[in-house]
Amino acid sequence: MKILVQRLPHAEGLPLPSYATGGAAAMDLLAAVAAPVTIAPGARALLPTGLCVALPAGHEWQIRPRSGLALKHGIALVNSPGTIDEDYRGEVGIILLNTGAEPFVVERGMRLAQAVLAPVTRGHFEEVAELPSSTRGAGGFGSTGTRP
């Protein structure tokens, strides 16, 4: 499926998002920083990708963390998964949070996050006086799998 992409000047020389393997579900998004950016423990930073996209109608980009950064460095995405809507035309940015104990340095071209192209199902609300019953009912917050 075609995704139109505009490369901004600060992303010149960086590869476009791509799938690392034939079976990969997500494309890697890279840091389009001019100089290294250090994220202190407990701090967060908005990092540029240097890309603007026009997604196909009825689709979103789900922005997800990279497992290696999470395991090795404690790097998380604050709003995970993030959503890039089909009608957004600004630069795609990645908000990283350093939950680790050491400062984390983002270098130009570093793989920051993953983007999954996903279909969007839109719904509408219909107000009712009462919802249909279900086996689970209103049980939540750990209620499944427990016996009375």
UniProtKB/TrEMBL annotation:
Annotated substrate binding sites: 66-68, 79, 83-85
Pathway field: Pyrimidine metabolism; dUMP biosynthesis; dUMP from dCTP (dUTP route): step 2/2
UniProtKB keywords: Hydrolase, Magnesium, Metal-binding, Nucleotide metabolism
Keyword Magnesium attached: yes
Pfam families for this protein: dUTPase (PF00692)
Gene Ontology molecular function: any one: magnesium ion binding
Record InterPro entries: dUTPase (IPR008181), dUTPase-like (IPR029054), dUTPase-like_sf (IPR036157), dUTPase_trimeric (IPR033704)
Requisite cofactors: Mg(2+)
Occurrences of domain dUTPase-like (ranges): 15-145
Keyword Transmembrane helix attached: no
Record-given protein name: Deoxyuridine 5'-triphosphate nucleotidohydrolase
Taxon lineage: Bacteria, Pseudomonadati, Pseudomonadota, Alphaproteobacteria, Acetobacterales
This protein's encoding gene: dut
